[in-house]
């Protein structure tokens, strides 16, 4: 039986750089596998999957979540400052 593949994206946006890696992975692959295959862990040493939250389309999920066709895995980073405070500072 032939292996079936799905198309997904892995996204990470440190500061002013957004990186989106399109992947074709085997059906049944999980979030952690997609992140590993994307190569982002080697490009960005600050990503630590033990503490860095990840999600699908803005919703936090676990690393073992099985991916579906068209999913976008997002690797989140810590906020530098509170967004509300940043807006207040810009308004001043």
What does this protein look like?
Helices cover 23% and strands 28% of the residues. By secondary structure, it is α+β, with helices and mostly antiparallel strands. A five-stranded mixed sheet has the order 2-1-5-3-4, covered by helices on one side. Strand 1 and strand 2 (19-26) form a beta hairpin. The longest helix is centred in the last third of the chain and has 9 residues, at 83-91. It is elongated and about 60 Å long. The model has no long low-confidence stretch (mean pLDDT 90).
Keywords:
23% helix, Ubiquitin-like (UB roll), 92 residues, 3 helices
CATH uppermost class: Alpha Beta
Distance between the termini: 64 Å
Order of helices and strands: EEHHEEEH
CATH architecture, by name, is Roll
The overall number of domains is: 1
Percent helix among the residues? 10-25%
Q: Structural class, please?
A: alpha+beta
Strand order of the largest sheet: 2-1-5-3-4
**How many helices in DSSP terms?**
3
Mean pLDDT: 90
Low-confidence parts, pLDDT < 50 over ≥5 residues? none
Q: Outline, from the CA principal axes?
A: elongated
CATH fold assignment: Ubiquitin-like (UB roll)
Q: Nearest-angstrom radius of gyration?
A: 15 Å
Total strand segments? 5
CATH superfamily: Beta-grasp domain
Largest sheet: 5 strands, mixed
Strand content: 25-35%
Outline:
By secondary structure, the chain is α+β, with helices and mostly antiparallel strands.
Task: Give the SSE layout.
Elements lengths: L4 E8 L6 E8 L4 H8 L1 H4 L10 E3 L2 E3 L10 E4 L7 H9 L1
Parallel strand pairs: 1-5
Antiparallel strand pairs: 1-2, 3-4, 3-5
């Amino acid at each position: 039986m032939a292996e079936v593949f799905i198309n997904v994206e892995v996204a990470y946006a440190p500061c002013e750089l957004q990186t989106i890696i399109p992947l074709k992975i085997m059906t049944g692959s999980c979030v952690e596998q997609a992140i590993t295959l994307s190569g982002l862990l080697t490009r960005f040493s600050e990503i630590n999957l033990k503490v860095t939250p990840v999600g699908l389309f803005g919703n936090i999920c676990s690393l073992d979540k099985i991916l579906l066709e068209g999913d976008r895995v997002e690797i989140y980073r810590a906020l530098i400052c509170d967004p509300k405070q940043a807006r207040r500072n810009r308004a001043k």
